Amino acid sequence: PLPWLDFNRELVKGYLSGFLFVDHGATVNIKGAGTDNTLLSAGAGIQIPLTENFNAQFVVGVPLADDTNADIDDVRFHFFAQYRF
């Protein structure tokens, strides 16, 4: 799933950008992969370009609601490394 809302702002030109998002199901995983459970979450993060094709992201996601009545009181921290071909 793609984010419902994504706001990105360059903080330090060419070196650091920050973003806010509201997401449906892609940021926080409930009960493992391969389930149909969905979760509405919001978060913020920073993105650091390391090379022209490679960047790192540090993200904090906060669950807002889900469709399973599961325990959603966890804050999630994520680190992503992304390479673009």
Task: Tell me what you see in this structure.
The protein is mainly β and 85 residues long. It has one domain. Helices cover 0% and strands 58% of the residues. The protein is elongated and about 35 Å long. It starts with a strand and ends with a strand.
Task: Please name the defining characteristics of this protein.
single chain; 85 residues; mainly beta; five-stranded antiparallel β-sheet; 5 strands; 0% helix
Strand and helix layout:
Elements: E1 5-12, E2 16-24, E3 39-49, E4 54-66, E5 76-83
Antiparallel strand pairs: 1-2, 2-3, 3-4, 4-5
CA distance, first residue to last residue: 21 Å
Number of helices: 0
Percent of sequence in beta strands: over 45%
In N-to-C order, the SSE pattern is EEEEE
Strand order of the largest sheet: 1-2-3-4-5
Helix content: under 10%
Short description:
The chain is mostly beta strands. It has strands spanning 5-12, 16-24, 39-49, 54-66, 76-83.
